Automatic annotation (TrEMBL):
Pfam families the UniProt entry points to: Myb_DNA-binding
PROSITE patterns: MYB_LIKE, SANT
Gene Ontology biological process terms from the UniProt entry: pattern specification process
Protein name in the entry: TSL-kinase interacting protein
Species of provenance: Trifolium medium
Length: 126
């Protein structure tokens, strides 16, 4: 019959994606030897479901930029003017545009999304 240490060695060589977690004794400062370790399979992170939003039409984009020019970065007011999109979609669209512009501008001309006045001005000039 195999010892616990031999079983652990066999399992660790067979299962490449496992991690070893040591089991703590009753005294929290002392951990047991590797022979008493527990092997838990490493679980892949659950995939976050992707959003299934419809693409923005030309009319919706024009309404968005008109509203952005008039009310600034007030997503609720923009949403009331772009009635076919909800607040999350409007906010997501705004920040996606900021990311795209930053990607095109490069690191030396990066826009700060927290400085909405400059970001909005850059978007409206773009």
């Amino acid at each position: 019959m195999q010892t616990e240490a031999e079983i652990l060695t066999d399992l660790s060589t067979q299962l490449h994606s496992e991690t070893i977690v040591s089991v703590q004794n009753e005294d929290p400062g002392v951990s047991t030897s590797l022979a008493n370790a527990v092997i838990l399979p490493q679980q892949p992170a659950p995939k976050k479901p992707t959003r299934q939003w419809a693409a923005w039409t030309r009319q919706e984009e024009e309404s968005f930029f008109t509203a952005l020019r008039q009310v600034g970065k007030n997503f609720e007011k923009i949403t009331s003017r772009v009635q076919s999109k909800n607040k999350d979609q409007v906010r997501h669209y705004y920040y996606r545009l900021v990311r795209r512009m930053n990607k095109l501008l490069g690191p030396e001309l990066c826009l700060d999304a927290k400085n909405s006045k400059d970001t909005n001005a850059a978007m409206l000039r773009w």
